Amino acid sequence: MAEIIKAIIPVAGWGTRMLPITKAIEKCMLPVGKRPIIDYVVQDCLAAGIREFIFVVSEQSSQLEAYYRSNIHLNDYLRRKGKEDMLPLIAPLKANMHFVTQPSYGKYGTAVPVALASDYINTDESAVVLMGDDFMYNPDGSSEVARLIAATPAGECSILAKEVPHESISRYGAIVIDESGHFREIVEKPRPEEAPSDYANIGKYVLTKQVIDSCADIAVSPRGEYDLTDAITQFAQAGGAVKVVPAVGQHLDGGSLDGWLYANNVVCGL
C-alpha cells in the first residue's frame, strides 16, 4: 500500500447552527484564537505528513481558498511598512490543494462529499477523512492524525474514538467494538444503560479507496441522509478491518455556539 499523504476534508455545510454569522463567513473559517477552525485540521495533517488536500466546498465558497493562497497585495503592504517578520503568518499552504464543489441541491449527508473526492484517490491508496468544523487539540503540538495513521495497519481502515462520560454517551453515536478492538457498527444516541461502549464517533477516519468509492452507492438512511458511517459499517460487516483508535487530544467542536466559545477558551488559555 502507498504511504498516506492525502486528506479529504468536507466543508460544504451551511453552518445553520451558527447563523446569522455564517451567512457571510464560511463555517470552517470561524476564528478560534487568531486562526480559522479549518487551519487546526490542516496543520495537524501537515504534521502527519499529509501533502495533498481535497477540500469539498460549497458553491459559494471563496474564503477558504483565499486563506491558503498567496495575497500579493498584502505581502507588498507588509514589506512597505517594514513588517516582513509577519510574512510567515500569511504564507500560502505548502501542499497540493484541490477544491471540489458539492452542489447545494441533490444528495445530502457525510458520504456525499467523500464520494465526490474519490477521483483524487488512487486504487492502491488510503486517505484521511476529517470534517472541517471540529479538530483535535494537543497542547504539546503533537499530531492526532499522525497517531491515527500510525495505528492503522497497511490496507486497513480506522476510526478515531473519543471516550466520553457514561452519562453523556446518549449525545453521540456509540461505537460497537469487538473483542479484537475493531469497529462493528455505530448505535446512534443510545440510552446510557443500552450503550455498547463509552466510545463516541467524532468523524475522523483513515479509509481505503474501496470504502471511499462505496460512498457513491450506499442507500439513504432512515433519516433521509447518505451517511459515511453506513459505508464503513458495510465494509466492516463484510469482513473488512476497521481499527478503533482511542483519541489522545481534546476534541473541540466549532459547529455550535457553545462549542465554538469553549474551543476559543481552551486554545487561548482562558
From TrEMBL:
Enzymatic reactions: alpha-D-glucose 1-phosphate + UTP + H(+) = UDP-alpha-D-glucose + diphosphate
What EC number(s) has UniProt assigned to this enzyme? Answer: 2.7.7.9
Asked if DNA-binding is a keyword of the record, the answer is no
Superkingdom, natural source = Bacteria
Q: Which keywords are on file for this protein?
A: Nucleotidyltransferase, Transferase
Indicate whether Signal appears among the record's keywords: no
Q: Which InterPro entries match?
A: GalU_uridylyltTrfase_bac/arc (IPR005771), NTP_transferase_dom (IPR005835), Nucleotide-diphossugar_trans (IPR029044)
Which segments constitute the Nucleotidyl transferase domain? 6-264
Q: Which GO terms of the molecular function aspect are on file?
A: transferase activity
Q: Member of which family?
A: Belongs to the UDPGP type 2 family.
Q: What is this protein called?
A: UTP--glucose-1-phosphate uridylyltransferase
The organism encoding this protein is Candidatus Southlakia epibionticum
